[in-house]
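Possible regression after last week's pipeline update?

I re-ran a chain I had predicted before the update to compare outputs. Posting the input and the new output here so someone can diff against the archived version. Not blocking, just want to make sure nothing changed silently.
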Amino acid sequence: MKITFIGAAHDVTGSCTLLEVGGHHILIDCGMKQGSTTFETAPLPVAEKDIECVLLTHAHVDHSGNLPLLYKRGFRGAVYTTDATRSLCEIMLRDCANIQMSEAEYKTRKARRAGEPDVPPLFDLNDAEGVLKLFRGQEYGRVIQINESLAVRFTDIGHLLGSACIEAWLHEGGETKKIVFSGDVGNTDQPIICDPERVERTDYLLVESTYGDRLHEERQGYIETLAGFIQRTLDRGGNVIIPSFAVGRTQEILYFIREIKNAGLVKGHGVWPVYVDSPLANEATSVFMQCDTQYLDEETKAVMAAGENPLVFEGLYLTTSTEESRNLNTDFEPKVIISASGMCDAGRIRHHLKYNLWRPECMVLFVGYQAVGTLGRYIFDGAKTVKLFGDDVAVNAEIEYFPGISGHADRNGLLDWISGFAEKPTKIFVNHGDEGACEEFARCLREERGLDAYAPFSGTEYDLGKNEFVRLTEGVRVKKEKPMSPARKRANEAFQRLVDAVNRLAAAVRDCEGMATKDLAKLTDRINAIIEKIRK
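New output (post-update):
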């Protein structure tokens, strides 16, 4: 039984871990990278078609976004996750595919003008639809026997609707070991969803460390703070622009605004309008409102029991069409606009920033983590100007951050969750944090809590049966190069397509075992002819 660390090793996004037990290959998460990364990610050491199943902690794209690519490259196993995560992925993975297709279409138009070949999408809607058919929704708290070597249980981790840590029991060679994959550990006292549940025991633990080196700001009154931001912006005739993750954070903000309106905390502006300008967020809100109540906290259940919708209020408008979205920027009535993406790297939020960032009466209110290298991080860190759709836009708007709303536990929250284990785990692996955060949290666990903790780099392998490293990597830093010329970028993309084609060919060749000798000979000759042509 062995674990190989692939993604989110000394990085915050792109979660992916390979588990091998009893000859079976299992992935825990298959996330997409977002923003810039510090270290290179090792390739999967096994063909995608040989992966038996994926255990998915939650629906956020940095944990689920590469599932369509996995399917495109041959994966046909099951994806085990909670029912709520399956429902959210049905909208999120389709959205990911549409973004990939849209970006490829844009690049293809540019390539054709330059006489270059078309640029295919990383994956398309067919790949998203294909992998969604492989999802197997599960309940919290039920042990599922995946195969003779693996049983798992999903436990509420309080990060997102349906999010879970995964308890895995491994059986091999007459020995049984347990490993827990934390996923993203949630903050406490968040609206709508429950607090993280503790796990009684484990031999090994893989834990995230997004905020492993810091504490959240002291919590102020959520409602009063948000009401203050809205009041002073509307008073000066501006718009409150909230870049928000479509799934999770948007619904929390709607919950708070409903309470603000019910209490009449924003005065002098009548039924001030709130627009959710994100088709994905609107679909996700529907999932939240229709989910099983097992995913909701007691306060939200009480609101519903009183006959009130916790996410709906007077003055709420859900925009769908691009025309409706454009009209928001020609209508000068002060308003709140909630739009995706949360880090400002894609989606309709970029249009709202273009039309509002330069206006000193407006406010851009960040309500979530901004990864290094994203547009949101540049603005948050104090950029004076940013480029949007080819134009330089001055940052004159008030820039604010909503304190304490993070969906991730901070250092103390992580320590508190880990303290729930009745016995010390044999070893703790720390991932899903930038270089400083994961190293500092691992140090904290070792020196302050007396735990055997280590922050692995991508490509590191550990034998869970023997309790020893099979392979230790030091991590290869991503080279910070000058911006790539368009021609060079196209050449790199073309080469990557070639590499992908070779990988698919290798997988196809492995499937030829047992084919007639005559057919194998013909295929070999054709491949050799291609090789000779390349060498010439």
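Follow-up from reviewer: compared with the archived run. The CA atoms of residues 159 and 186 lie 4 Å apart. Marking as no regression found.
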